[in-house]
Amino acid sequence: MFDRRLIDNFDWILLAVLIVMGLLSVFNLYSATYTVRALGGGQIFVKQICWYAIGFLILLLMTTFDYHMLNRLAYPLFFLSLVLLLAVLKMGKVAHGSQRWLSLGLFSVQPSEIVKISLVIILAKHFSEDERIGNYRLRDLVRPLILTVIPFMLIVYQPDLGTALMLLIVSFSIIIFAHVNWKSILIFLSTAVLSTPFLWVTLQGYQKKRIIAFLRPQLDPLGAAYHVTQSKIAIGSGLFWGKGFLKGTQTRLHFLPQQHTDFCFSVLAEEWGFVGSAVILFLYLFLILWCINIARSSKDRFGTLLVIGVAASIFWHLTINVGMVTGLLPVVGIPLVLFSYGGSSVISTMAAMGLVMNVSMRRFMFQE
Amino acid sequence: MWRSDFDLREAEIYQRRLTRLTVFVFVVFGILFVRLWSLQIIHGSRYRTESENNRIDLRDIMPSRGLVFDRNGQLLVDNRPSFILGVMPENIRNLDSLLSDLSRLVDIDRPAAEEKIKYALRGDPFRCVYLKRGLSRDELARIETHKVNMPGVTIEVKPQRHCIYGTLAAHLIGYLGEIDKEQLGKREYGGNKPGDFVGKYGIEKKWHKYLDGTRGGQQVEVDASGRILRVLYQKEAEAGADVYLTIDKDLQVLAEQSLKNRAGAIVAMSPKSGEILAAASSPTFNPNDFAKGMDKGVWQGLISHRYFPLQNRVISSQYPPGSLFKIVVALAGLEEGGIDPKERLFCGGSYTFQGREYRDWKKEGHGYVDLHRALVESCDVYFYRMGQRIGIEAIAKYAKNLGLGHNTGIQLGDEKPGLIPNKAWKLRRWHVPWQDGETLSVAVGQSFTLITPIQIARFISALFNGGTLYRPQATLWVGRDSEKRLFEFKPEPAGTWDLAEKNMELVKRGLYGVVNEPHGTGWRARLPNIPVAGKTGTSQVISLPEERETGQEKDIPYKFRDHAWFVAIAPFEDPQIAVAIVVEHSGKGGAVAAPIAKALFEEYFKTKAPS
To answer: Which one from B273, B317, B323, B539 is the annotated catalytic residue?
Structure first.
């Protein structure tokens, strides 16, 4: 199993980038939870170190088998993740008004994270096995759409609109990349626009408030728009060089909500300025481009699509989160992968990166 | 690219797509970079200023709670400013010395305060921790003087609910308390947040949605020391609507005075509409104790008190009706035909039935009595025999139809339905059949029967208003502006009596006699210029508590002395006011309760011309 060539082709650069991001994430979290830490409270950044450590182990684990095995395991894995989603609806812990976690004794599992990966795998499998190389018409997409919609509904029901939408976006990225023809895309987009009023009705009160706050901040100055205003102040006040590590005033004064998850980018931008934010953006850009490169040199369609799926996930998380904290998009509760605090998120992202690493390592090999 | 499957053309296509994808990624990142540049470089200095010298704060503007008045516009409940001692943990320099300084100036629970502050330091040092509410003027002055030397200490002013007359109409008005989890989930508390004081009992609870008003808010810019530099946005608070009760304050004061140092209840009603003119329950409590956050010691005192001051006896205490019940038996007998108003029976002081002796309250007996005399002098023997003749089923049927044995629907808290026993009930509850002898006890209002003061007040009102049972109500109108009332009182008939006019007249005449004819048991309620009618009652608590159909001990007065009842109405021809009075453990109705009715009528008619 441990072929010499595997180790030759080990992607050290990818690993290095991930390590750097891990370190930056931990430092940033320290600052974000500084006022808590200073008085002996929750040790969030320590926990994040643990998550990263475990994450790296899992990443390495994900490289030990041939990724083609996933082709065979795609459906069983998918069904397993659906079962877990159902389980969490019935028996999940309720936190912050929604049921997202399954408690398994020593640790908790967030099934929506598992679904993210299993959906990418199953979609990659579907499109790689089809005879055609593109020009799918709408009717050819029935199966992929069903595969997407089922977990989507289950997650919306938790309720976790943010993650559900992310699932949808990543799925569509893969579908579009597999090249649907333009007509179908147009038909699809127009149905999406037409169905917006129906979707509006199903949104919960606070979700509607957020969208209204985004479109017309003057209508709800005391609510959702307030958070974004605080975020923009934090980011903007960083200027070029930032205020310095641990010296972010908006952060220290707790004006940013969720500063260790959704708004962690604002913390970084305030303390490290344009320089810092640009560096982070560059790191993400590099990561995504590197993934695209791996996709390019992958030896089969399945590998390419897998990597594209993972890259899409990272891309959209970043774009939506940074867009949100800078006021370009409404607040939708999407954390920044690899940067925000969150065991589930770190581990599932590292697992996904492990898959990418896996594909990268086997680009010269024939199927085992 | 793919050397193993598919052909090179396909590989080309995918290459193209990957390139397009790369371009797309660059474009999006470009947008993000531009945005960051815009925020941090172009507008950076503005944001820097905003973050350093100013910060944006969200402040609530609390609405002022609606006031409560009596029916004539006399103010009963308003809001007073209350001063709260608080500490901002972030600004404390030395916790120990601060607490020592504070304890020297005011009485504070030092260990609790220390714990609260330490807890806040760990999680949220920028949120004020409240140490003591309701500071007196002295305490306020002392702290304000020394505040300079105690960094971190603040004084906040918050409105506090204030019952002007203290305990007056406490059970009716109710009290406030901190909102609990269950209430937070309900829609009518939608405008409230944790920590708010909301209505928990009585009128304060019933009309909370209107009384509360709507919160406003401000988005303000404050500088480093918390001073407001400018208001960015402001939404005004909407004051709560006022509530006008149906009670008359002066009548209420008199009613409560009459019950001073005794346990009991008084309710005065308008017989033709159901408006409550006074409702007193003794012992009582002071809602002001709740308004500032209930003290643990006071609360313990209230709930462990022998006579349950928190219970509204007018609607929640169930008593045996005693001789009051003879009115029901009289009506039942006349309707069913069992009673002939001209028939005379001899009462010698007791009646033997099935080997048992049933005694009359008057040892010597009343002599020959007909229905009218029997009511006037409250002859037990007459009613023993009539009760036996009519039977328990008929008595129970009429009692229930006439409004006893079920809730009046007053909607003011924990109303109890009372109890009208019959054969089926006894079997169900005690698993033994009804004994005929028990019918005799029921006929004079003893045994299992239970009523509440509000029920009997409504009952007597119906008798004199032509037979309509009205739902008792305590609210006259609700609103901020007399023109646009949010609620307006309307009499709500809840049923009518299906009795012959002449039978009701007979009984009414009898009740007139109780007060105005010789040997009438209610002579102490007689007034010189206003014709009063009524009935006395003396309910005996001789049976043991277990025989009573109630779930809780506190519904049963546990001392084995008689309760004094009196119900009355005035004036006889066109009744304006009905009263029901019960005084616990105090002896005979005529002696104790009737004089109270007289005083109430005098007060009521002082300003009104009797018809």
So the answer is: B323
